C-alpha cells in the first residue's frame, strides 16, 4: 500500500502528542524543570546541528536539508519504550519524570524543526530571519490554538453536562476529537499543529484536575486512550514492516551513490549515527549533572540557604558515588520510538517539480535502524546499569500520597465495620 505522508502525519501524531501532554505529571515535572529544559532544548539543538552536519558528511548523497530533517526527527526520545524496559529493573520515578518531560518537549520541538527542514528541501531556499519569524508564529499560534480551543470545548461540554447530564460516550468522543481539531485549525492558520496538540494535552490536564468529569467517565476514558496509544504505536511499526522491502531496495541504490556497493554499509551508517547520537547525549547529560553538583555545593556552602527550607536538589554525595552510571543510564534511556518513525514516514514522496524526494527511503531505513539499535542497547544495558544503582533521593510527594492512601483505607474499613455492626444490631446506637 502507498501511504500519503500528510494523512499519516495527521492520523498518528496528534493523538500521541496530545496524550503525552495530558498524562504528564505537571507539578512534579516543575521540580526538575532546569534539567528537563537542558535536555529538551539544549540537547535538541545540539543534536540537530551536530548530527545534521555529521549525517551529510557521512552520506554526501543525502542533501543538507534532508540530513537536517533526519537529525531533527531522530532527536525526540520515547519514554514509553524506556518504561517498558525499566519494568524489569525499577527505575527512579524522578528519572522517569525527567525522561517524560524531555520527551514531551523535544517531540514537539524536534518535529517543528523537521517541518522547517523539509520545507527548505521542497522550496530550495532557506532564510534564517524568515525561519525565525516562522518559528515564532508557529509556536505562538499553535500554543494559542491548542489552549484556546481546548478551554472553549471543555467549557461548552461542562455547560451541556450540567443541563442534560453527562454521557461517558460523548465525553470520550470529544476527548478524541480535540487533538485532531486543534491540529487541523492550527495548520489552517499556518502555525504548528504539533504544538497545538501538545498544548491541548497540557490544557486538558489542567482542566481535568478540577475533577469535573464523573469517576466512571474518567476510568472508561483512560482505558479507551490506553487502547488508542497501544494501537497507534503498533500500527506505525506494522506499516513500516509492510513497506520495508521496497524501502530497503531503494536505499541500497542510494548507498551506491556514496561509492559503496555492499548492503552492509547501511548497517555501518546506522551504527555510526547511533553512536553519534549517544555521544552528544552523553556530553549533554554530563554537563547537566555537573550543573546539579555545582548547585548542590552552592546550597551547602551558603549560610543563608542553610537556614531556608531545603531545596529539592539531588544530594552531591549520591551523584559523586554513582555519577558515571547515572550519566550512562540517562544516555542509554534516549531511546527513539514511534514519534521518530511517524515523522520520518511523513517525508514527501515527490518534490514540487515531480521528481522523487531525494534519499527518502534511505532516511527511513536509517531512522528504523537507529530505533532498533537504541532499543536493543537499552534492553541489554539499562537492566545491568540500574541493578544495585544508588539512586538519588526522590523529592516527590510519595510519602504524603502513601500516608493519605493509608488514612483513606483505614477510614473506609472503619466505616464498613460501623455499617456492618449497625446491620447486625439495628437496635444498638
Please characterize this protein's 3D structure.
The chain is built from 16 helices and no strands. The chain is mainly alpha-helical and 429 residues long. Helix 1 crosses helix 10 and helix 5 packs antiparallel against helix 6. The protein is globular.
Q: How is this fold's topology laid out?
A:
Blueprint: H1 5-23, H2 26-31, H3 33-58, H4 64-74, H5 79-86, H6 93-123, H7 128-164, H8 168-188, H9 193-208, H10 215-256, H11 264-301, H12 303-307, H13 316-332, H14 338-345, H15 360-386, H16 398-424
Helix pairs in contact: 1-8, 1-9, 1-10, 1-14, 3-4, 3-6, 3-11, 4-6, 4-14, 4-15, 5-6, 5-15, 7-8, 7-9, 8-9, 8-10, 10-14, 10-15, 11-13, 11-15, 13-15, 14-15
Which tags fit this structure?
429 residues; mainly alpha; Na+/H+ antiporter like fold; 16 helices; 79% helix
| Oligomeric composition of the shown chains | single chain
The biggest beta sheet reads:
none
Overall CATH class of the largest domain: Mainly Alpha
Radius of gyration: 24 Å
Q: List the helices and strands in order.
A: HHHHHHHHHHHHHHHH
Quick gist of this model?
Helix content is 79%, strand content 0%. The chain is built from 16 helices and no strands.
Amino acid at each position: 500500500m502507498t501511504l500519503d505522508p500528510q494523512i499519516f502525519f495527521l492520523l498518528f501524531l496528534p493523538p500521541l502528542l496530545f496524550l503525552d501532554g495530558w498524562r504528564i505529571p505537571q507539578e512534579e515535572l516543575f521540580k526538575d524543570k532546569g534539567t528537563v529544559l537542558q535536555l529538551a532544548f539544549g540537547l535538541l539543538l545540539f543534536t540537530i546541528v551536530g548530527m545534521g552536519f555529521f549525517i551529510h558528511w557521512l552520506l554526501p548523497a543525502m542533501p543538507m536539508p534532508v540530513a537536517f530533517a533526519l537529525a531533527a526527527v531522530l532527536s525526540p526520545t520515547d519514554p514509553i519504550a524506556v518504561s517498558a524496559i525499566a519494568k524489569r529493573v525499577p527505575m527512579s520515578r524522578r528519572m522517569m519524570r525527567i525522561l517524560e518531560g524531555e520527551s514531551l518537549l523535544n517531540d514537539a520541538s524536534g518535529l517543528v524543526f523537521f517541518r522547517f527542514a523539509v520545507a527548505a528541501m521542497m522550496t530550495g531556499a532557506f532564510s534564517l530571519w524568515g525561519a525565525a519569524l516562522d518559528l515564532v508564529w508557529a509556536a505562538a499560534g499553535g500554543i494559542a490554538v491548542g489552549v484556546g480551543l481546548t478551554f472553549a470545548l471543555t467549557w461548552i461540554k461542562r455547560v451541556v453536562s450540567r443541563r442534560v447530564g453527562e454521557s461517558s460516550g460523548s465525553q470520550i468522543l470529544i476527548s478524541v476529537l480535540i487533538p485532531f481539531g486543534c491540529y487541523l485549525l492550527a495548520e489552517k492558520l499556518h502555525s504548528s499543529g504539533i504544538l497545538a496538540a501538545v498544548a491541548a494535552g497540557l490544557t486538558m490536564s489542567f482542566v481535568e484536575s478540577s475533577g469535573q468529569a464523573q469517576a466512571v467517565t474518567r476510568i472508561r476514558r483512560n482505558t479507551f486512550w490506553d487502547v488508542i496509544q497501544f494501537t497507534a504505536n503498533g500500527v506505525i511499526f506494522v506499516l513500516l514492516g509492510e513497506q520495508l522491502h521496497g524501502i530497503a531496495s531503494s536505499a541500497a541504490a542510494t548507498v551506491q551513490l556514496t561509492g559503496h556497493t555492499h548492503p552492509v554499509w547501511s548497517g555501518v551508517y546506522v551504527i555510526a549515527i547511533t553512536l553519534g547520537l549517544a555521544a552528544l547525549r552523553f556530553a549533554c547529560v554530563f554537563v547537566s549533572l555537573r550543573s546539579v553538583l555545582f548547585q548542590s555545593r552552592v546550597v551547602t556552602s551558603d549560610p543563608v540557604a542553610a537556614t531556608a527550607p531545603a531545596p529539592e536538589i539531588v544530594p552531591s554525595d549520591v551523584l559523586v558515588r554513582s555519577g558515571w552510571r547515572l550519566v550512562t543510564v540517562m544516555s542509554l534511556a534516549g531511546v527513539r520510538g514511534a514519534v521518530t518513525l511517524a515523522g520520518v514516514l511523513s517525508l514527501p514522496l515527490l518534490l514540487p517539480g515531480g521528481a522523487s524526494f531525494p534519499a527518502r527511503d534511505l532516511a527511513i531505513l536509517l531512522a528504523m535502524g537507529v530505533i532498533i539499535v537504541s532499543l536493543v542497547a537499552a534492553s541489554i544495558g539499562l537492566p545491568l546499569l540500574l541493578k544495585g544503582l544508588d539512586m538519588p533521593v526522590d523529592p516527590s510527594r510519595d510519602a504524603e500520597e502513601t500516608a493519605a492512601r493509608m488514612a483513606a483505607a483505614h477510614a473506609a474499613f472503619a466505616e464498613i465495620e460501623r455499617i456492618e455492626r449497625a446491620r447486625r444490631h439495628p437496635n444498638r446506637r
